[in-house]
Every structure is written in structure tokens, then in C-alpha cells.
Write a structure and sequence with these properties.
By secondary structure, the protein is of the alpha+beta class. Helix content is 27%, strand content 21%. The longest helix is centred in the N-terminal third of the chain and has 14 residues. The chain starts with 8 loop residues before the first helix and ends in a 16-residue tail after the last helix.
Length: 142
């Protein structure tokens, strides 16, 4: 999937930038927003939410996916990750695993820096040899 084939790209860009503004990141000052595009083309947003205990941080990608799931959608068509950095910031390992749960290896991950520049990665490149539900036994021996 190419960027020009995604409907509502202007809306996605505006929403992602607004999610950066909504980020709650008083400890790291690293703001991240995300927009998940479901299989049917609906868009869902999220931002990172930090916590003083650090381990309770909710990443923007997970926030957007939870928003998507709570609205009844179960499959991602694409994920957009926006950051307050000049660098292109890809999802952390936990987010890559979460994205995989609701998509497939060919899912495009578009990363957007603070200049609005966009870079595309396939999930399979970001999480090679991924662990997925297909590795689990159908029935437990327990």
C-alpha cells in the first residue's frame, strides 16, 4: 500500500499532529501521536500517556489500537506514528508486537517527523521473525 492510496491523508496528518499536542509526557518530554487506519478505512487516534512509575506508560500506537478495538474494529490497514522529533521514530518493540496482533507482516507503518516528512516501513522489516498467534498450539496441554 502506498501513501497516495490512503483516503483522508490530510485528515490523518492533522489528527496525528493534534495527538502530539495532546501527549501527556512530563517525564520524557518526548511527544508521540498515532493514527490507526482500520481495514474499512476508519481512522482512530491516540497519544502517549506517561506515568510517574514509568513502567505504566501507554504508547501512542497502543492507545490508537485500543481506540480502534473499543469501536468494534479488529484489523489494521495502516499505522501512522507521529513524533516531536526531527528523526523518523519507529514503534518500540512492544508496539510492533501489538500492531502485529491486529494486522499482518505487509502492514505499512508510516512514520512522520516534526517537519511533516513521511517514511514508510513494512511491519515485516520492523519485526522480522515475529512471534504471532500462529505459533501457539490450538489446544493447551494443561
Amino acid at each position: 500500500m502506498e501513501l497516495d492510496s490512503i483516503e483522508n491523508i490530510k485528515e490523518i496528518m492533522i489528527l496525528g499532529k493534534n495527538m502530539i499536542k495532546n501527549s501527556y509526557s512530563p517525564y520524557s518530554s518526548f511527544r508521540v501521536g498515532a493514527v490507526a487506519v482500520s481495514e474499512n478505512g476508519e481512522i482512530f487516534s491516540g497519544c502517549n500517556v506517561e506515568n510517574a512509575s514509568y513502567s505504566l506508560v501507554v504508547c501512542a500506537e497502543v492507545s490508537a489500537i485500543c481506540n480502534m478495538i473499543s469501536k468494534g474494529q479488529k484489523r489494521l490497514k495502516a499505522m501512522f506514528v507521529f513524533s516531536s522529533s526531527e528523526q523518523f521514530v519507529t514503534p518500540c518493540g512492544a508496539c510492533r508486537q501489538t500492531v502485529l496482533e491486529f494486522s499482518n507482516a505487509d502492514t505499512p507503518i508510516f512514520v512522520v517527523n516534526n517537519k511533516g516528512q513521511i517514511r514508510k516501513h513494512l511491519l515485516s522489516i520492523l519485526i522480522p521473525h515475529a512471534f504471532s498467534a500462529s505459533a501457539l498450539p490450538e489446544e493447551s496441554d494443561l
